[in-house]
Please model this.
Amino acid sequence: MLTAPLSSLPALSKLILDNLLKNMKVEAFTAIRPSDQEEDGTVEIEVQGEDSGLLIGRRGETLRALQYVTNLLVGRRAEGRVVLDVEGYRERRYAALRTLAARVAERVASTGQSVTLEPMAANERRVIHLALANNPRVATESTGVGEGRKITVSPARG
Model:
């Protein structure tokens, strides 16, 4: 249970995450990452340690779950949102998704055939949509429900 009065979202978020990791018996260090988003109530926390692979999980599933639980606990005590990253995984994943988006867009534009990507989390689909938003040769659309939502990249109409 939290005993110290915490007036700042970053300090509260870090304390909650540190307690979660301790209770999970995970050896890791957390640091609040400087962010432009702090003004809108978003706190970014970087996690590093020997158990980083365990914290990331398959395709970031464990990382998303840890972020979800952290946000639930923070939300009970403060307004704001916490974004977690483990050993820079999130940024590496986003870079890989932008590269994938560019490759798929090129294939769709050259063949005229639509391509449907594997199911992705909402934040990952957003990266693809944003990466191709200004590409006049293709259009993107999310289809499906829940965990099965996918992006289809199609040739642009007209």
